[in-house]
């Protein structure tokens, strides 16, 4: 995502367990398969290469955090899960960090949530260090986090009071690696990646007895695209989920193809929110939600109509639409017309504060930076990424090594893209025989899972100032899942005064914890009641401000 840069009540028979994971063996792996992987690992070690372990590792430590006056002792486990093919051959080692409330036993009905970042190819130290784990790097204003020492410690906004948590690193990222003679291409793709995460989650549930726990997914950025595919894959393998959290979503990459206009519609409300924040509007509303709603209505009305006409638009309509856009996003009508009414993101970042010689961030447009060339076409860097990366990387490395006690000679990859031979297979096999997509849209997969499971709750969490995955694009993606009214009752939208990593803003973090606590309670209660939610009215079913 950044830095070029997230045996309890298990069905008893091995035959049924194999059906639950269609790509897992029914019995123990063959000795030949183990030997082949072990020999490959041995060859690598003899060559001086640090490799991931075939045997699963666990490094456990104890901690405690206080939430709303309640002390929560927990066990932190940094370890690996070994993924296997249908013959039992080890194929990959996935690194994870789990936080389990002390006293939790196999077979528990306590919820568990699996977290991951996006990329594709990003490890999950961003969510791990910044959001809802029992520990957190403290962040504040949209400015550069000062160098070490960093303010890192217990997190009073952790979700440990509601759920156990497992943070998973994608294969090729962090400490996760292919094993033996497996090629990275076996994991570097939309479906390949989702399959690896499905195997890891199934393995964790089996190893630690969590099949009877209410289960949740929590993905950020590309991790939301993964969640759509993963929710369907897990359900298809016998693991029905209770809920999916989509943070800063991008579930449909089709809109980002050159020549398509939907991306400009998707960005308009985010541009408007950013212009509002930086006080670039002539008639600035009292709150950001007001200008966002104005931009939504303009985007689906005059703007959509104008873009659809292409070069055949009249001069009068072009002038009128340019004036309307200018009032919303703070750029001059002349600049907008010269851009053919289509404002690319880098141009907006550079142009909005042109007179001040500043640019705005991409991941979080509240951040401002200064380029060496104030006359340039696009920002020279993303200040919102530069401002936080060093603190997150340093904190994670220190915490994992010295507190969690996980030590290895392997480098912690900040992105799988740093490995030789990186390439990503964007093809996706959509469910229900809908065919192969060249540009994935896994909102289709999520919709299929929601139709099959009437109890599956989905929470879409969005930042007003996120210009990496604009919230209006998320509304469009999830608004085209073609859910029936009863299924739409399971989908909720919330918004925060923050960027892509909404939890960086302490004000937003407090609101997120409140919203998530209520949502977890509802998701668990709905499943236990045996009664699916009541369908809302059509007017109430769409996105509403937080």
Automatic annotation (TrEMBL):
Q: Where is this region: Disordered?
A: 18-63, 363-382
Q: Which UniProt keywords apply?
A: Signal
GO MF terms, alphabetically ordered: serine-type carboxypeptidase activity
Q: Name one GO biological process term.
A: proteolysis
Give the Basic and acidic residues compositional bias ranges. Answer: 31-45
The signal peptide, as residue positions, is 1-19
This chain's protein is named Peptidase S10
Organism of this sequence = Sphingomonas ginsenosidimutans
